Amino acid sequence: MGKQSKILMLLCGLIVVLLVGSYFLIQATEKARKMEQTAVETPETVKEEEQVQVQEESTEEEKVPESKNGLMIGFDQSNKLTDVLMVGHVDTEQNKIKVVSIPRDFFIDFRKEPFKSIKKANPNNKIGYCKINEIYINMGAKEDGLETLKQVIEAITGLEIDYMATINVSGFKEVVDIVDGVEFDVPVRMYKMDPYQDPPLRIDLQPGLQLLDGEKAQGLVRFRGYPNGDFQRIKVQQEFIMTLFQKIVSSNVEQMTSLVKQIFKMVKADFGIVEIMDYLNYFLDKDIVHIMSNANMITLEGWFDELENGASIIQFDLEKTQKAVRELLEKDDKTAAPDKESNSDQSKDDTQENKATDQKSENKK
Asked: In the structure, what pLDDT confidence band is assigned to residue 294 with cuts at 50, 70 and 90?
């Protein structure tokens, strides 16, 4: 398995950026077009258009889209192992996007419920047990493998998945370089060289705040040498998602155009432009920076275990994973994204609330 798959979590987060960026780009183009029209329109025409626009805006304000759940699947370089699994909950009541990360080593036993029933419903499922990231390849890397994976994640989280998107790793470096790099506080000394990997691995980062270009950013998210393994790695990736998100929403139109094109190359989704625009129109009136925060990102907990063949896995308690998801979704977040008109010093407080995501694994062996 190529280590480049470690950047997939970031690309999952960029789906949100894609939606926001697409809307900003559309708005900028529409604004320029209207300015050109204004130069040749008569006062009567302008007045009529303004009346129509007021009526349209009034109708849009009354429309609040439903809260939805989307599954984001990130493939490794072989496009067979689903190494990143995230469920994004678009909360239109709190004006937040909440994210649940599922570790790729979660152990799924299809001999036991609720997974036994999922297997029984699909004759093509011959799996006895495996890691969650192996379900797709073990079912022949076909469409029903993705459907089974979705059903397993619904059982783990207790959520109904409305939409699904798959992502590949190509182009990540370009995304970072398009926004002229990202300033990020590297938590530890990171050094790892392996010329035999595909692509070759070269990570050499000193700790501290620094500007990361695409190459260095890729090294940051590929690094695995943490005491807590995947749990700490996911936390660093989530923090980088937030930093990159904030950089992207402040990009200019030219950068946003390139970003939208680049991210579209990496994403395949079962939702269309109509669904996208419903949510973009709604979130436009909110403070974009507040919509996503580390406080609304969690990684499901488990404890490390080992199979007889020596393979490392993560066991988990189904009741606890579902409870963690419920608590995240039901949390009354006082920092819910305000309307732009009412935005004040609250934005300064939101960045200081990100303490709840440092979860430790629970040893039950």
From this structure: confident
Please say whether the beta carbons of 226 and 190 come within 8 A. Answer: no
Give how far Cα 252 sits from Cα of 183, 276, 288, Å.
17, 21, 15
Q: Which two tokens stand for residue 306?
A: 């080992």
CA 165 from centre of chain: 10
DSSP H stretches of helix in 194-229: 214-222
Strands 82-91 and 68-75 come out as antiparallel
Q: How far is CA 364 from CA 301, 305, 307, 313, 317, in A?
A: 12, 9, 15, 13, 10
Strands 68-75 and 182-186: unpaired
| Measured distance CA(213)–CA(251) in Å, rounded | 16
Q: Report the pLDDT averaged over residues 118-137.
A: 96
Q: Report pLDDT for 151.
A: 98
Q: Are strands 163-167 and 68-75 parallel, antiparallel or unpaired?
A: parallel
pLDDT digits (tens, 9 = 90+) for 134-155: 999 999 998 899 999 999 999 9
Nearest C-alpha neighbor of 8 from the set 297, 229, 241, 177? 241
Q: Closest by alpha carbon to 254, among 32, 37, 12? A: 32
Contact 359, 231 (CB under 8 A): yes
Q: Tell me the longest C-alpha to C-alpha distance in the chain.
A: 80
Q: For the segment 313-333, what is each residue's pLDDT rounded down to a tens digit? A: 999 999 999 999 999 998 865
- For residues 181 and 211, the answer to whether their CB atoms sit within 8 Å is yes
| Choice between 115 and 230, residue whose per-residue pLDDT is larger | 115
Instruction: Write the CB contacts of 139 (distance below 8 Å, at least 6 apart in sequence).
Output: 124, 125, 126, 127, 145, 148
Hunting for tokens 């499901």 — which residue is that? Answer: 300
DSSP summary character for residue 198: S
More confident site: 52 or 225: 225
- Say which CATH architecture domain 3-350 belongs to: 3-Layer(aba) Sandwich (3.40)
Examine the pLDDT at 103 and tell me if it is beyond 50: yes
Cα torsion angle, 180, 186, 189, 192, sign: negative
Closest CA to 141 of 190, 200, 82: 82
